[in-house]
Amino acid sequence: MTVVRGRHEHLDRQRRGLECSTTPPADHVVVAMDDPELVERWRPSTVVADHLVALAAPAAGLPLAAARNLGARIAIDRGARQLIFLDVDCVPTAGALEAYAWAAATAEGSSAVLCGPVAYLPPAPPGGYDLETEARTARPHPARPAPDPGDVVIDHEGHHLFWSLSFSVGVAAWEATGGFDERYVGYGAEDTDFGQRAARAGLPLAWVGGATALHQYHPAQDPPVQHLDDILRNGRLFAETWGWWPMKGWLEAFEARGLVRRDGRGGWESTAERGSP
Fold first, then answer.
1. Is the entire prediction scored with pTM above 0.85?
2. Which fold has domain 2-215?
């Protein structure tokens, strides 16, 4: 399942990566969030059975949680037993899906949320990425475990490290989590929330060596000031649900810029909400 708005060239590379997989997916479900251009340009793959579905977006922001849930429902209705979610920026390496399938077949992996390493790529050179070379040389993100190929590390404590860039889960385990919380709209926290839902359901994370995805470069602000309102809204919802605020690094960076402040109740608010300090 891939949710997308824009980034069409990134999606094209992802689809080529899926076509080159040693274990191709039975289905690739793409959910276009308010993306009529993608609907217009869509051409089905001749190698992988892929399906495009359109989803309207509310005024508050992109419905990332709802879009992932919709993709999962379509896949399950089509007979899926194992779900794999890929961010539109992620190209699976040739053996990534095979590694996920192998891990899912193990006793521990069958009831876990499987997480593959993600390696961030530099900007593409003029001729584009040579993905085969990148797959051999890319280094996984240092903030997440990256076992050797063939190894699976079961983690019962690190659910706060879950991210939705690349992960896989069996249908029974997916249903035990309840899926993503669709109250989250816009950028931030819906994947951290899903990690907590997995923990509540008693599902460990399993870091899967060899299930590597290559994250294609795109410009980004750090901290993501353009998503400030989303981060505050979703962070507040998360805190009301779980009792602590996520995205602390971004919030502290916003605070250093004078964009947010502590609200006196253990949370954060925009400095524009009640005027400047």
1. yes
2. Spore Coat Polysaccharide Biosynthesis Protein SpsA; Chain A (3.90.550)
